[in-house]
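If you are new to this repository, start here. Below is one unmodified record pulled from the training split, so you can see the exact layout before writing a loader.
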Amino acid sequence: MKEVISLSETLLYRIGELSKLAGVSPRTIDFYTSTGLIEPEKRSPKNYRLYSDETLLRLKRIVQMKKDKYSLEEIKASMTGWSKVSSEEQVSGQLMELQIHLEQLQREVKAIEPVLNQLKPQQAKQVFKRLVPQTAACVEALMLLLNKGGFM
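And here is the target side for that same chain:
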């Protein structure tokens, strides 16, 4: 029996199929559903919960955030915050991914800060010489994005 159901050209997945695609257990999906992190798109005539591709993407983001050591409270706050920004799941997802990457970079910088502080002046100069062009390009791209959105 096939678990993927197609309604109006939208693929909807039962829990078993969703769990395989996301790499989590059905119990995890039940838990995330009960906590409000994900929601079924609708119910089948036999009352199965059916989940959309957007839910699959959201679930994959949750899994990634858990790997990055975010608590469930932090994940829920982040997801809720981005859902309020845009009803478009794709835009919200991309912005959330950007936020996750920036926060991960912050954590990594804090982790290597003690090592950088112990470098000899010439070593530090070489490290920063390599990082400055990439960092400047990244900051410039973020500034352009923020200016386009009318945030600044």
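Two things worth knowing about this chain: Confidence is low (pLDDT under 50) at residues 1-8. Residues 89-117 form the longest helix (29 residues).
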